Amino acid sequence: MLDKPSKERKSAPASRFRQLLGLGDDRDKDSALKAKKPAKEPEERKHQFATWYIFAAFLGVMLIQFLWLRFTQVETIPYSQFEQLLTDNKISEVLVGTDTIQGTLKNPFPDGRKLFYTVRVDPALADKLKEHGVTITGAPSSSFLSTILSWVLPIFVFYLIWTYGFRRMAERQGLGGLMAIGKSRAKVYVETDTKVTFRDVAGVDEAKYELQEIVAFLRDPKSFGRLGARIPKGVLLIGPPGTGKTLLARAVAGEAGVPYFSISGAEFVEMFVGVGAARVRDLFEQARKAAPCIIFIDELDALGRSRMSGAMGGYDEKEQTLNQLLAELDGFDPSTGVILLGATNRPEVLDPALLRPGRFDRQVLVDRPDRSGRLEILKVHIKKVRVAEGVDLDQIAGLTPGFTGADLANLVNEAAIVATRRNAEAVTLEDFTAAIERLVAGLEKKSRILGPAERRRVAHHEMGHALVAATLPGVDPVHKVSIIPRGVGALGYTMQRPTEDRFLLAREELENRIAVLMGGRAAEALIFDGEVTTGASDDLQRATQIAMEMVTRYGMNETIGQRTYAPPPQPFLAGTTTNPVDASDSTEREIDIAVRDLVATAFGRATDILRSRLDDLEEGARLLLVQETLTADQFPAIRSTARLAAA
């Protein structure tokens, strides 16, 4: 693999690498660490008290038995002595039991006691032993204490095993105990814990404006409804991962100063049917008692997925839980001050009944920030690190198209790490650039040593990308070219820096992007007499993907026509797989031919450009072999000639 993250990565959204890099929002982590540990549930405390009560009662019974035997002790005599007393006619009365004989003497013992106690022995055996002068003493088969232990102790042991074994194991597996199986697991944040406000949220001004009225209602419900307005029961925050949906919900609670119930949609779904519905009821019951408050359900798609007919029908656990949520949304009065906030990045899978007016009345888009939004987000996160004077945050915002708030938070942290490694006093622009390269292209593989022939081929390959990008109009200018291996399989990369955020692309611009992707292979074929390598595999894949979308989704081919053949992609989850093309066999063949022609034409254009700039190609490859990294200032030939001509 030669250039896995090169070329289009320059303008490709950073979410394409999020799953590999494991990006997260540090703000959410800090907030979770500050959250107050919730108090134990009353039912759990009662359960623990009951355990100690049983244990104390057991000890009490043993103590009473010991004291009774001590203070009501009866003289125990051997059975042979009992027979002798009987022969001597010294016994006045006896109480014969199954195994024991208890009686009273006519004359007391020397110590003054008349009561005696002995254990019965088989008469035949007793006579035989008596003949040999053996003293006979019986052994009791059981006692009151042993009887108590035989019944109570096993029960108590099994109870302890259940309490401290199976019940705790079930709690770790997410099943909960019998006393709390229907209880909500929502974490409660009160005002002192929810320190986040709208000042901590940047880059989503439209979403904050939509949520301002929620804050106004929670602060003063009566004044807000003076004209008869009704606050929405539910507000759904939709957007890509990492854009700050959870942070926005916490900011609403922090601005309003109300309790904040936070729970994930997946925590409602359990093994036992009906448990999720019980937890929904318990959550809303807690919220009504704490009103005014906010209920925030993250990853709502895990709970509110569209109901579909199947073998389980209405008895499915997820369906029952969703039905209970719908019933609660219909039943609670919004004037009480309970606001339901939900967040998801898959709104297309939610049940229509959940999104209708009267339940989730409003949908607020929390999208990836534009350049000005990224600048504001950087200003928020830059307060946490020591930045050198003269660092242009606007330039950093321009280098990060497609980055979300979580990506930018991670970028600032990575830049601080880079500066710390080199023992710097402050974070500079070079540290931010190195952090961007690490997040987008991957970690440098300094231990991966290439041979001279491979390095020469990689240098021509990357310079081919850069020169084609510098020649064609409508292409992002080249920022840096490098032959230092990075990531999993990238032996080099070409980074382009967009000058502005783009929301629409013309057909010519897409064709130019395909030509840039094919520039690496065109350079190899031109310099090495048509011999190509596997280094362009990633380029071919992405070029084919652009050409396929042009034909099947954008209707940019005259032969195929103005219609779509591909299903719509998921709007907020980049890189997800889609269904195959929906077309007849003959149309699929025409689509294959159209895609092949687009890629072949782009390869021919790239070859013609590099043939006309062969001297620049050789000179740039030579400089790359010496310096390993080139910028437009170091090698002006890769500067965008199309933009200079237009200027």
Oligomeric state of shown chains? single chain
Helix share bin:
40-55%
Total strands:
13
The total count of helices amounts to: 24
> Architecture of the largest domain in CATH?
Up-down Bundle
What is the approximate shape? elongated
Please mark out the parts with pLDDT under 50 across 5 or more consecutive residues, or reply none: 1-43, 173-179, 310-315, 642-647
CATH fold-type name of the largest domain: Methane Monooxygenase Hydroxylase, Chain G, domain 1
Task: Return the domain count.
Answer: 4
Average pLDDT figure: 77
State the major sheet: 6 strands, mixed
Structure overview:
A hairpin with a 3-residue loop joins strand 2 and strand 3 (100-105). It contains 24 helices and 13 strands. It folds into four domains: 7-15 and 450-646, Methane Monooxygenase Hydroxylase, Chain G, domain 1; 35-41 and 180-365, P-loop containing nucleotide triphosphate hydrolases (Rossmann fold), CATH 3.40.50.300; 74-141, Signal recognition particle alu RNA binding heterodimer, srp9/1; 371-441, Helicase, Ruva Protein, domain 3 (Orthogonal Bundle). It has 647 residues and is α/β, with parallel strands linked by helices. A six-stranded mixed sheet has the order 5-7-8-9-6-10. Strands 1-4-3-2 form a four-stranded mixed sheet, with helices on one face. Strands 12-11-13 form a three-stranded antiparallel sheet. It starts with 17 loop residues before the first helix and ends with a helix. Helix content is 48%, strand content 10%. Residues 1-43, 173-179, 310-315 and 642-647 have low confidence and may be disordered.
